């Protein structure tokens, strides 16, 4: 009986030693590839391209192109309206803005940062619409976009407000 207990004890010590050694190996310094991934950050120009493409699409009255800058499962949070989720629904939302008489849209990035494959952009926008009295309505505002880098290396909006 004492031999079995000693054998069990030795087996447990060996297993514990192996587990500790495995944990120590996993906690080594990050590899060069991981360090590059963490330290690599996109420029404001790269992060702001999504919204410049978006404004260009609205000005061209192209809801498909306006929606393609969003991830397939993205959500937008328009003012005084329900959350719109999914690229097809986002396309329909922006088609509504086009149908409402949008003339053009411009954006200006104020700040943008990224860490790895995640980023954000904040900025201001101007949208001009045809009014009911043949006048021009100008809407000024601000926006926030949460971005992710897709497999093709393009920044896509996943949340927009």
Task: Please describe what this structure looks like.
This protein has helices spanning 2-26, 32-39, 44-59, 63-67, 87-99, and strands at 70-76, 84-85, 102-115, 118-130, 136-149, 155-160. With 161 residues, the chain is of the alpha+beta class. It has a 6-stranded mixed sheet. Strand 1 (70-76) and strand 2 form a beta hairpin. The radius of gyration is 26 Å and the shape is globular. Mean pLDDT is 83; it is low at 7-20 and 22-39.
Find the structural class using helix and strand composition.
alpha+beta
**Quaternary structure annotation:** single chain
What strand line-up does the widest sheet have?
A: 2-1-6-5-4-3
DSSP strand count = 6
Global shape: globular
The number of helical runs is 5
Reported for the largest beta sheet, the result is: 6 strands, mixed
Strand content: 25-35%
From N to C, what is the helix and strand string?
A: HHHHEEHEEEE
Distance between the termini: 71 Å
Break the fold down into its secondary structure elements and pairings.
Layout: H1 2-26, H2 32-39, H3 44-59, H4 63-67, E1 70-76, E2 84-85, H5 87-99, E3 102-115, E4 118-130, E5 136-149, E6 155-160
Parallel strand pairs: 1-6
Antiparallel strand pairs: 1-2, 3-4, 4-5, 5-6
């Amino acid at each position: 009986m004492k031999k079995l207990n000693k054998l069990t004890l030795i087996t447990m010590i060996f297993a514990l030693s192996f587990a500790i050694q495995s944990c120590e190996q996993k906690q080594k310094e990050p590899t060069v590839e991981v360090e590059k991934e963490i330290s690599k950050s996109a420029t404001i120009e790269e992060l702001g391209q999504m919204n410049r493409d978006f404004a260009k699409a609205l000005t061209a009255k192209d809801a498909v192109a306006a929606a393609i800058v969003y991830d397939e499962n993205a959500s937008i949070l328009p003012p005084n309206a329900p959350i719109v989720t999914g690229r097809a629904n986002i396309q329909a939302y922006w088609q509504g803005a086009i149908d409402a008489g949008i003339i053009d849209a411009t954006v200006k990035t104020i700040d943008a940062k990224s860490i790895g494959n995640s980023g954000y952009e904040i900025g201001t926008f101007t949208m001009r619409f045809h009014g009911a009295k043949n006048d021009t309505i100008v809407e000024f505002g601000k926006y926030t976009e949460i971005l992710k880098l897709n497999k093709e290396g393009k920044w896509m909006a996943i949340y927009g407000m």
